[in-house]
Amino acid sequence: MNSAKKVMNQQKDNSEKKENVTVKAATGKKKLGVSSGRNVKAIVLSAICIVLVLVLCIGVGIQQLGPEVAFTVNGTKVTMDDMMYPIYEKESYYLPYDEMYQAYMGTSVWESSYQGSDSNVPSSVSNKIGIKQEILDNEEEYVVLYKEAVKAGYKLTSAEEKKAESQAKKAMKGLSWIQKFRLSMSKKKLTKRFEKTILADRYKSDRQKELNKKVDETSVIKKISKKDYREYDIQYYAVALSKTDSSGNTKKVSAKKKQEYKTEINKYAKKAAKAKDFTKLIGSKDKTDVKYDKAEFTEKAGWSYLSTANLKKVKAMKNGTVSPVFYDEKAGYYVFVKMIDNNSTSSYQKACDDAVKSAQTEKYTEWLNKLKESYKIKVNASVWNNVEIGSMTTEIVTAEDLQKMKESSSKKSSSKKSSSKSSSKKSTSKSSGSSKSSK
After folding, report:
1. What is the CATH classification number for the domain harbouring 268?
2. For bias kind Polar residues, which ranges apply (predicted)?
3. pTM
């Protein structure tokens, strides 16, 4: 009861004080002139400006005094300010695809399966978890390689210094000052970053060349089957016996429609026998579901447009010959083919190159992992665990912002091309004019 009374009394005293203040304020009012009104406006604007400057200064002060440390390499601190650019770089790459993923896959691009190339990341994890690990692995690698480069006496060339500056300008292009501020980006900081990564990349390239010599390419290539990778290059006309609606549901066409397709494709097959150009059997005014295309398939992989029995017939074709129409209900197509090359080595060569490159990458990864063991790398879990890819920079630079930046860049490049064309035309006309006068 006593405490309740105290609260009531305190409330009553406060209301009485407010009334007294109101009365005094009312009795003490004076008529304000025009100049007084202007002064008040100027004071308010000045106050707002001061507050904004203070907010920015406090923000900068906080960042300068203590940016959170993401990880350390032999005591060298890499802060979250340093990590903002690589995070932004990855998020701005994937963000434009998010809307498409939401519409067609029913999930965000961040929740879809990992799409990166980091060998340390299992493919079963989500994209946001995989990208997060990829960013951390890449940054750790750059710090270690930069330290090794400095230790080995590597120094930037003047061309590399200019390249770093150019990369910094490009990275900030299209960003507003407030976006740069929120991303902890500046020309000075980014130039310094790119100087380090350029030096690290040169050191990495030199080490990779040395490691490549240790890869036995002959033994790697021996494992690739020439028979399996024999390639068949074809041109073809086909019509699908099923259609997919906007919801992604596939439905077979009717028997009547199939008969129409048979008539249409037979018409083009007859034209193929006499045509000089196999690629132009369908006229510009023809309304048809039959489509022309070209394809390559290997002995091992096969071709989905034909069942095994019909594909065997195609593989037996001589170069330059045209097949009859295959009414392949099992594969789901009516199709006829022209054989361009029945023994191409392109797929085999690519498989060999890929195998050698994979062996070289494996050799480098082994070397890097061993090198990293000699360094004390410590991740600050209390900071890095709070990083959630897909939400770090996507509100600072939105998908709409990225689209505008892309459009602006394409407009500038097209205007540069048109201006260079017009200048070249002018110089041509001048030179032709001068040659005429000389005559």
Report:
1. 3.10.50
2. 1-12
3. 0.74
